[in-house]
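Quick start: read one record
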Amino acid sequence: MAAASNSIGVIGAFAALAALATCNMSGVTIGAAGESAGTVAPSFAERVEEVAEEIVEERPAEERWLDDRFYGIGSTFDGYLGIAMVDVQTGALVHFNGGETMPQQSVSKLWVALTAFDQADKGTLDLAERDTVTFSDLTVFHQPIRKIVKAQGSFTSDYRDYIRRALTESDNTANDMVLKRVGGPDAVRSVLAEKGLGDIRFGPGERAMQAAIAGLEWDQRYAVGKTFFEVRKAVPHGIRRTNFDGYVSDPVDGARANAIAAALARLARGELLSAGNTQALLTLLDEVKSGPNRLKGGLPAGWSLGHKTGTGQVLDIVPPGVIGEQAGYNDIGILTAPNGKRYAVAVMIGRTARPVPERMDLMHKVVGAIAGYHQRVSGGVATAGS
């Protein structure tokens, strides 16, 4: 089994190593010169290998099977990515490269919604409160509300509706309205810290972050038409690449696939919000329209998925016909098997230039592997080749 995909037992390994480093091996007599009577004590490096192997072998066979599948899927894909699954019922974590920080992009809308629902639970936000979107509130990229504002001059709705639009339509302006109301990025970071989700970052907001990735400073004129794209094309290639590379290597909105899967599992178990708002948030994830052929495209018959996608900028400074690198092509969610058993999953492609169908195929394979894991832990008979 590949070391890159080991996901469980790190803490236990170090604890065991500490014990091994301070005591003699059972049944071995160590002489004054550090030699045993007839037996040579293993070196520290050998003890590291022994402890690590012991822990891997103690994992259930079903987890080792899924670990192998994730390694096979992830290691053969041309891109920088992380894959993680948490069994909601047992808490078992299996991953490939899930400890690496990847760009979230619109996945981070989930944490804005979590913050809003948390404030509703605490009585500091009434989701029925209304607010109005004007031209000065528009952001960048996907924002269906912009058409309404352009036609009517403004748009008024309540925060429950803005949360719905932000999650199910991935509307950047709707998300920004909620973000502003809850207290901005610092408020979201505070909730993430309060709930123990420290391996999930939250950036400065859509406008500032997307502008910085492109080597720009935000100007509200970029929110109108194709202005952002036109201005971005004029940025010198060297600046664009430097900013793009810097973002991917240390994303301000980054998160580990392991952390996202663990957070989703806690959400599913009702550990992050009240029962009513847990159900409200899970229902919205069930209604997401984006990414119908990402994770959802790989669902076996009888399975369902509540999810949130994230799609980042493409570094399009390439010759015609060449696919530019993309910073963030993600899908995360909660898979539900026909018997009701649930699995939190996160597939975070931090950087790749592979065609979109290949990315979707990778996600389909991840879902298929989790379905195979479910079959095994549920006592099903494995099918040929699975």
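The first strand starts at residue 79 and ends at 87.
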